[in-house]
Amino acid sequence: MARQVLDRIESILLEAESEEKPLEIEPFRGRLFELFVIADGGGFLKEDAEVDLTADGICRELGERWGLAEATAQSTANQQKLASEHVARMRLLWSMMRMWMEWDYAWKRWPEFRSE
Predict the structure, then answer these.
(1) Which of 3, 67, 70, 82 is buried most deeply by CB count within 10 Å?
(2) Pick the residue with more confidence: 24 or 108?
(3) Which domain of life, per UniProt (predicted)?
(4) How far apart are CA 70 and CA 28, in angstroms?
(5) Burial group, residue 3, by CB count within 10 angstroms (0-12, 13-18, 19+)
(6) Range of the structural domain that residue 70 is part of
(7) Which distant-in-sequence residues (6+ apart) come within 8 Å of 97 by Cβ?
(8) What pTM does this model have?
């Protein structure tokens, strides 16, 4: 299930990128939030989770898939600017991570504010 969630996240990010639209608008934001809820329900946001679907874990996995670490290392080694397509993907990941971290924070704090 975790792999499917990660693949769907990647699909949403790439769709937003191809449409040149921000992740923070619908339908992207809502679809990502649904995946956040699934990831939480599956226990993938916990520290000891079998598969890490925290914001950092997703960033690490998609960054690897997209070759961002290698591109950054080569850019640094060659003392050249990072290619624009890699910068765009990093920005896309940052947008996703920011929302994911905000949801995680709010989700964990929800019981404090919910009256029963």
Answers:
(1) 82
(2) 24
(3) Bacteria
(4) 28
(5) exposed
(6) 1-113
(7) 55, 56, 58, 59
(8) 0.86
